[in-house]
Design goal:
4 helices, mainly alpha, 109 residues
Amino acid sequence: MKTIGLLLLSNIFMTIAWYGHLKDRGLPLWKAILISWGIAFFEYCLMVPANRAGYFSGLNGFQLKIIQEVITLIVFSVFAVVYLKEAFELKYLISFCFIIGAVYFAFKK
């Protein structure tokens, strides 16, 4: 659970760093980059311990990456709908279902 919690928090910072500036068209690119780097610092402060905790508790690198991608998609979906005001379409739901299938196979013994 520690790994999942840290990955969730990390991905919130990552999503804000990567996409938070999109609504501010007047923000110069260099400022967007510097602000994003500043936010991403906190992402790394959470992502590195999350991956270490998960790896040292028995998850392998592939499993960690797949967990991280699923969390990223969930966090981004909420962000896109709530902050960017974008519609969540059926094609995205179907795509996510295929990704969940990948998770199943990654953890299948």
